[in-house]
Design a protein that fits this description.
heterodimer; A: about 450 residues; 3 domains; two-stranded antiparallel ribbon; 7 strands; B: mainly alpha; elongated
Chain lengths: ~450, ~220
């Protein structure tokens, strides 16, 4: 070192010596900054994953409490229009919106979560609400009106995760229908998966750096995104099925058998086309994913030597591997969720059940097929002719009319918002001929007022 | 202010083979003040002339332009690299003109404008230009202003561009030759392979700059 330092002023030896020292310092500083960055990244990552999971779990629980509230209000014929106040419990006190407890005659407490019967206790104004009731055992306070139009309070009990999971989804469809039980069973499985999910806890900083170098955190991001996407897709599909079933149940025809046959014919006619559309979409999706991954790391954007070499370099890194896998698996997940839902619904179409349940099941399947068909040509270069062919229209037909006629034939207003090819107002206008409440969904004010006044009922 | 006539006389005498020390002694004997002689020599050293630039080995100048065009192509800025090549050639001629007309202040201003011009043509190459300018200023003061700043700047620009090309070629060699043989791993581990290249950058610049200035008696 000393020989190095006393090298001739301006000489090559001195230059190398000084530069080597600077380089070592540079390396040490880089390692220190890098380690700090890694620990910070890992901590933020852990925190973010835990917070997201906590938020989703809280949201799931809240949904269940909302369903419980709806069951209780429905059971007692209370007003649907209720006001809620969450109960925030600190060490010594319970905080809630005090205004909610004003002018109350009765308080419904100790509600049974199976029968939804509650104990009715008159409000004692000598005591504050928190002293009259041990509010620490409750989740929320709901204020609504009873049949005599008097304000009442319902104290929604605090429940364990298992008890919450057993609360059914509140729906206008009777719970004794097989299709309703199946939907509830699937909701139960999804909610159970969410509530049982645990976030990993890593505390040691050394362990964090080691795991970072092993690519653990990128895999964790991937798995977390896949988990939430899967949950989202499943819940979306279930909510959609429930919405369709409720809509169908609302307009239950007198001759259910005839409608069932009609639906069966439509399903038999379009099922193969939906399968073909899914297969086609799968092929296109594979090509797109390959292109998207390339563009993520440079290919396909600026095709320069630098871009190509950086792509080559990053393609060997764990971050690239995690995101490439994520892209592929997300595509597969989307496809498989859609495909599984379709196949499962198709296989169960002949289940032994009541006529009403069968009707709802077939309607759900029919709408599922219709959605696949309507959105099947989105990635095609020649979308219009593809859609005309898929929906069995003639090649020269107007694509808007073709889609509109298909939606009217399927008889589901929810499909009005599912295609970019049709005018939504026109679509709702068609359905308003059957039910004038659809006029409210028309966006154009003039058309809406015309629809509501009945001037357009006959398609004028 | 330096005595320009005295500087011209020193320049002519130098062309006949006399060294600075010999000329300084002669002028002191003739009654010139030491400070006046030193100022004249300093003025002479700070002036740019085309012949001085041509002392840079021609192969380095050729490699420099090849580097500029190659890097321009590799980074998708080939047209900009051609424009910059033209600007540099024109700047040499303009600097020579300013020198002949003794327009010293304008030549200094032009040097700064030239670096800023890089920014407008290509921000990527501006980084190299500004690095060479900063290093040139450092060297200029290290040499007690006994060198021409523009000449040093050009020499460092050549050194930096050739270094950049060599480093880039080695990087390509690693990316296309070694990286495909490795398993998928952390980006940190992959970047470790490039540490020797980073270490080699300053010595390369140092060596190439020495090579550029070897015939100009500048260390």
């Amino acid at each position: 070192m000393i020989d190095c330092m006393i090298g001739k002023r301006g000489g090559i030896a001195r230059f190398f010596c000084v530069w080597s020292i600077i380089f070592v310092i540079f390396l040490i500083v880089t390692i220190l900054i890098g380690s700090g960055y890694v620990v910070n990244f890992a901590e933020k990552q852990q925190k973010s994953i835990s917070e997201t999971l906590q938020s989703i779990q809280d949201n799931t629980k809240q949904q269940k409490y909302n369903h419980l509230t709806k069951f209780i209000t429905s059971k007692h014929n209370f007003s649907d229009d209720f006001q809620e106040s969450p109960l925030l419990i600190t060490d010594n006190q319970v905080l809630f919106d005090q205004n909610i407890a004003d002018n109350i005659e009765l308080v419904y407490t100790n509600c049974n979560i199976n029968t939804f019967n509650c104990e009715q206790v008159p409000r004692n104004y000598q005591l504050p609400l928190q002293e009259q009731f041990n509010l620490k055992n409750f989740q929320t306070i709901v204020k609504t009106k009873n049949q005599e139009n008097k304000d009442i309070l319902i104290l929604i009990p605090k429940l364990s995760d298992d008890a919450l999971l057993n609360i059914l989804i509140f729906s206008t469809i009777p719970n004794d229908l097989q299709i309703s039980q199946e939907i509830n069973g699937e909701f139960y499985n999804v909610f159970k998966t969410v509530l049982k999910k645990k976030s990993p806890a890593i505390t040691s900083k050394t362990e964090m750096i080691k795991l970072y170098l092993d690519g653990f955190f990128f895999q964790q991001i991937k798995e977390s995104v896949l988990f939430y996407t899967e949950i989202g897709l499943k819940l979306g599909s279930l909510n959609s099925a429930l919405e369709v079933a409720e809509e169908e149940y609302k307009y239950l025809p007198n001759n259910v058998n005839q409608k069932v046959e009609e639906y069966q014919q439509t399903i038999d006619f379009y099922y193969q086309k939906a399968q073909q559309a899914l297969q086609k979409s799968k092929q296109q999706s594979k090509q797109e994913q390959s292109q998207n991954i390339q563009s993520l790391f440079g290919y396909g954007q600026d095709n320069t030597l630098v871009d190509k070499s950086l792509s080559k370099l990053f393609s060997k890194s764990d971050i690239s591997k995690a995101f490439i896998e994520l892209g592929l698996e997300l595509g597969k997940l989307r496809q498989s969720t859609q495909e599984n839902a379709l196949n499962q619904a198709y296989q169960n179409r002949n289940a032994v059940e009541s006529e009403t349940s069968k009707l709802l099941r077939l309607k759900i399947l029919q709408i599922h097929i219709a959605k696949i068909l309507i959105s099947s040509c989105e990635d095609e270069t020649n979308r219009q002719s593809c859609l005309l062919n898929t929906l069995n229209c003639k090649s020269g037909d107007d694509v808007n009319n073709c889609v509109l006629n298909f939606i009217v034939k399927i008889n589901s207003p929810s499909l009005c918002e599912h295609s970019r090819f049709i005018d939504q107002d026109q679509c709702y206008l068609e359905f308003s001929k059957i039910d004038s409440s659809f006029c409210a969904r028309i966006r154009d004010d003039y058309l809406k007022s015309q629809c509501e006044s009945g001037a357009l009922v006959n398609g004028e | 202010m330096a005595n320009k006539k005295l500087a011209d006389w020193i320049k002519n005498e130098e062309l006949q083979g006399y060294s600075d020390e010999e000329l300084e002694k002669t002028l002191l004997k003739r009654g010139y003040a030491k400070e006046e002689v030193e100022k004249a020599i300093l003025y002479l050293r700070q002036k740019f002339h085309l012949k001085a630039l041509l002392h840079i080995p021609i192969y380095l100048i050729i490699i420099f332009f090849v580097s500029l065009l190659f890097l321009g192509w590799a980074f998708g800025e080939f047209v900009n690299s051609i424009i910059l090549s033209a600007i540099l050639i024109i700047s040499v001629l303009i600097m020579d003109f300013f020198d002949k007309k003794n327009m010293d202040l304008i030549s200094w201003t032009f040097l700064i404008v030239l670096d800023i011009l890089f920014l407008f043509v290509s921000p990527l190459f501006f980084i190299v230009a500004i690095a060479s300018f900063i290093l040139a200023i450092g060297l200029f003061f290290k040499e007690k202003r006994q060198v021409n700043l523009y000449l040093i700047n050009m020499s460092l620009l050549i050194s930096l561009f050739i270094t950049a090309m060599i480093i880039f070629l080695v990087y390509l060699g690693i990316v296309y030759g070694i990286i495909p043989l490795l398993p998928t791993t952390s980006l940190t581990y992959l970047l470790l392979i490039f540490l020797p290249i980073i270490y080699a950058i300053p010595p390369l610049i140092y060596f190439l700059n020495k090579l550029c200035l070897s015939k100009l008696k500048i260390n």
